[in-house]
Amino acid sequence: MTDPHLGRIIKDSTGPEVVTSAMSDEQLAGLLDALFRDLDTPAPEPSAIVRYEIGVEESNRRAGRATRIE
């Protein structure tokens, strides 16, 4: 992972649900973009997939769409 901001977010001890729900729409979009780019590398951060899924759920919640990621 090369994005230092993303690294701080992934290591945040409050948990991904708390972090994503506290973000503005623009911040959340930026986080999802950074996580997606990280997942598209040969060695993504192990927790990136879970955090990406939680971020997508938060984004969908804000848009009024129900999601279920399995």
Task: Give an overview in words.
- The protein is mainly α.
- Helix content is 63%, strand content 0%.
- The protein contains 4 helices and no strands.
- It has helices at 4-10, 16-22, 25-39, 48-62.
- Helix 2 (16-22) crosses helix 4 (48-62) and helix 3 (25-39) runs antiparallel to helix 4 (48-62).
- The longest helix is centred in the middle third of the chain and has 15 residues, at 25-39.
- It is globular and about 35 Å long.
Largest sheet: none
Helix content: 55-70%
What's the count of strands?
A: 0
The dominant shape is globular
Q: Residue ranges: pLDDT <50 for 5 or more in a row?
A: none
How far do the termini sit from each other?
Answer: 25 Å
- Structural class by secondary-structure content: mainly alpha
The helix/strand order is HHHH
Total count of helical runs of at least 4 residues: 4
Note the beta-strand portion: under 5%
**Rg result:** 11 Å
Mean pLDDT: 83
